[in-house]
Amino acid sequence: MFDSADTEYGVLPFVRNIAGELVALRPVDASNWASVQYRAESAVMAGRYDGAIAFSRSRDRRSGGIRTAIIAQFGELPDTLAVPAAETAH
């Protein structure tokens, strides 16, 4: 467990390119757990993105380890990224 972790939140948005493929855009920062879910879902519902993943990333200041967790998924995602909303270690 990361006792001395710094946590960041973000939205990874996806849009369809002119070939019809889902491609990722730059991640968008969010301030907290609730905000990241709201931003991802509302952007998909408003049609700004075709899909989005809300995630958190914790960095352990002592070891330098990073833990990424998918908080929620909305809309369409590439098959390679459509995973259950569960923690993944990186």
Question: Main traits of this protein?
Answer:
90 residues, mainly beta, six-stranded antiparallel beta sheet, globular
Would you give an account of this structure?
The protein is 14% helix and 46% strand. It has one helix and six strands. Strands 1, 2, 3, 4, 5 and 6 form a six-stranded antiparallel β-sheet that branches. A hairpin with a 5-residue loop joins β4 and β5. It starts with a strand and ends with a strand.
What is Rg? Answer: 14 Å
Mind summarizing the main beta sheet? 6 strands, antiparallel
List segments where confidence is low: pLDDT < 50 over at least 5 consecutive residues. Answer: 82-90
Strand percentage: over 45%
**Shape call:** globular
Number of H/I helices: 1
- Mean pLDDT comes to 85
Distance between the termini: 14 Å
User: Helix amount, in percent?
Assistant: 10-25%
Q: Structural class, judged by helices and strands?
A: mainly beta
Q: What series of H and E elements makes up the topology?
A: EEEHEEE
Spell out the blueprint of helices and strands.
Blueprint (H helix, E strand, L loop, with lengths): L4 E12 L5 E3 L3 E3 L2 H13 L5 E10 L5 E10 L11 E3 L1
Antiparallel strand pairs: 1-2, 1-3, 1-4, 4-5, 5-6
Characterize this entry briefly.
By secondary structure, the protein is mainly β.
